[in-house]
Amino acid sequence: MNNRFPKLLTVLSLSAMLTLSACGSSSNNNGNAANAGGNGAGQEEESFTLKVPDAEIWGEESSALQTMYDLYEDKHPNVKLEQVTMKDDQTLAAALVSGEAPDLMLMDPSAAKERFKSNYIAPMDEYYTKYGWDQTMYKWAKNAYVEDGKAIGIPWNYEGLIVMYNESMFKENGWTIPTNYNELMALVPKIKDKGIMPFAWGSSDNPGVDDWWVTSIVNSVLGPEGTKQLFSGDTKWTDPTIVDAIQRYSDFWNAGYVTDKKSYAISQEDSMQLFLTGKAAMRLDGTWALASDNEPDFDIGFAPFPSWKKDGTPVIPLGVGGGLVINAQSEHKDAVAELLNDFFSPEVVKEMAAHGIPEPVETDFSTMELKPNVSKALDMINEAAQAGSSGYVAWSYGPPRVVQVLESDFPSVYLKKTTVQDWLGNLQKLKEQDVAEKRLFDLQNY
Amino acid sequence: MNEVKRASRFRNARGWLFVLPGLLFHIFAVAIPAVLSLYLPFTEWNGLSMPKFNGLDNFKQLIHDSIVGTAFLNNIKWALFWVTIPTIFAFFLAYLLNKIKRWQTVYQSIYFSTSIITVTVAGQIWLWLYNPFSGMNFYLDKAGVGFIDIPGLTIPSLSIFFVLIADMWKGFGGNVVWLLAAMTQNDKSLEEAAKLDGAGRFRIIWNVILPQLRPTLVIVTMLTVLNSFGAFEMVYVMTGGGPAHATETLSTYYYVLSTTGRQAGYGSMVALLQTFIAVVLIGAYGYLRKKKGWDV
């Protein structure tokens, strides 16, 4: 037995060495393939695999990715695209740290910036120059993915907060959609008297959505320039204008105008059902919800969120929902950039717009056959942007610590667990911490 | 003699070779992360960059953080609820199932069936039931008993208990199975003897059945309390810790801090507090087991 063991050990060691050297060869092949991928079209490519985000990650909404993959695979039959599911950002973070993250990743701007600083994200300036992506891209959208003067990703879409309302109900009752606080306060008692909720809203499954109200309110009371100053400049969260506006929202909520004071007890989906079944007249929502196949027995209208100024005009907060970035550890960066170039092909641009999440590039939507709801809303946003009445969503531009509280603790205000002044005072302290750590969105990049 | 020594050394080396893969895995997957987790609470870390040592700053923040207090109290409520209502309920169900001679496995499977439903689905079911506009209250109203109002998640101070009910519905079947398995091992002759001596049903439960179940009950209670301090899934699915942190637990809080909050260093400090609580509980259990004879 003892005599046989050394022989067995020798055989095992040799096998292990052979296996390891085979793995090494495989890695080398991949490395060469990377170079081949980088050489561009016209040369015979070696086979290799690119790991890319799962096109089904957000269902229909992310299906444009599949169109992009198909276009690329048609042109590069030797390159296999392996779709990888990263169920949340935590999983992606773990994959990055362990060196197992995909070559191409979907990531929101603030996460991308943190990861660029930690050398997990590759700079993309040379690809912007090579492919001319920024010739038609909105500058403000590109800037969401600029850090230390370097482009670190391409913005995937732009999105905005709007009000959807029951157009048929409004017509039947002779109501008009309010454009400011005074008009809103004149309308909501009339809606309530009919036994209908003015606003359907639900946050039990996702307290983060309450941030949409704060975003809409501060944009409309401060205007686009003032909002920039609040998020990245000298305006304080304790500014009397903001204190007054948030206090008025608390009063509005406590008057029962938002889901009958039960918004935190139902989910977003259930609040949508309240709207679709005619139990609520309006709902705050994002452009990403435009393409959902809801078919109520009434017409849906879209409007900007009423200005929270007493006699103001509305502002539509816009932002970049996410972006595509290249893994700094990828051996195939040039190939990934070539894949990304297909993101700007007409097929993909159309598919993104069709789902209500248009790419932030100059586009003529009138030539596209879009669903009527999508067309209506995109036209409205374009008009607002051209008129200078588009603002900034907090989750793209707000100080990270402040956003975390906006997304978890706004109910403390309307449930009166704290005073508006104290709550906003805490936000200001958090903003100052972010200032000290240089984590604010750069004012120059708006 | 040298031959014997060499053979002995070779045997030892061979033993180490067999142990080595498991040992390396344990060192890299358990020991090093465990040691690091004692360091991270004393750092400023966003979860990605290199952690920077910041001394006791996170501890000071923990002391002044009212949300930690709320979360800790919710964990206490969670533990107290789980060691009382679901455990007593599970005990009586196990007792009844033990008395049934036919279809016992079928009933057992029915009670256990909710445990195999994923938390996401179970949470959604209970969100529908609690929905104040279309859930249980809506149908009670339709049935003409609208005066019965189930608050569900509408009263923030009570929300934690309604999340607990959902969690109990999903999880108590496991306790039933544990206790039933223990009951089947009980000495039936003791019950027969007690009956012959004229003891009533509750006297038999209290003086004959429960003492025999004590080791299992101690283990079930201990695991329940430990699980309670790790309460996460049902809260996260149903309320995300809201509204206004009313249902926050230590686990949901440090999860949010470490992920979207990008304060993984401080999140680790909250997690360290949770670990400390677990260590205290295990210590208390060890003490009771040794000194008070709660041996299993």
List keywords for this structure.
heterodimer; A: about 450 residues; alpha/beta; D-Maltodextrin-Binding Protein, domain 2; 2 domains; 6-stranded mixed beta sheet; 3-stranded antiparallel beta sheet; 13 strands; about 45% helix; B: about 300 residues; mainly alpha; MetI-like fold; two-stranded antiparallel sheet; 2 strands; flat; transmembrane (chain B)
Q: Order of SSEs of chain B, N→C?
A: HEEHHHHHHHHHHH
Give the strand line-up of the largest sheet of chain B.
1-2
Biggest pleated-sheet summary of chain A = 6 strands, mixed
Radius of gyration computed on alpha carbons of chain B:
25 Å
State the separation between the terminal residues of chain A, measured CA to CA. 75 Å
Mean pLDDT of chain B: 89
Description:
The complex is a heterodimer of chains A (446) and B (296). With 446 residues, chain A is an alpha/beta fold. Chain A is built from 18 helices and 13 strands. Helices cover 47% and strands 13% of the residues of chain A. In chain A, strands 7, 8, 9, 10, 11 and 13 form a six-stranded mixed β-sheet that branches. In chain A, helix 2 links the parallel strand 1 (48-53) and strand 2. In chain A, 47% of the residues are buried. Chain B folds into two domains: 2-44; 57-291, Orthogonal Bundle (MetI-like fold), CATH 1.10.3720. Chain B contains twelve helices and two strands, in the order αββααααααααααα. Chain B has helices at 2-39, 57-64, 66-99, 104-113, 119-130, 136-142, 156-184, 188-196, 201-228, 233-238, 250-258, 264-291, and strands spanning 43-44, 52-53. A two-stranded antiparallel ribbon of chain B has the order 1-2. In chain B, a hairpin with a 7-residue loop joins strand 1 (43-44) and strand 2 (52-53). The longest helix of chain B is centred in the first third of the chain and has 38 residues, at 2-39. Chains A and B meet through helix 3, helix 4, helix 11 and helix 16 of A and helix 1 and helix 5 of B.
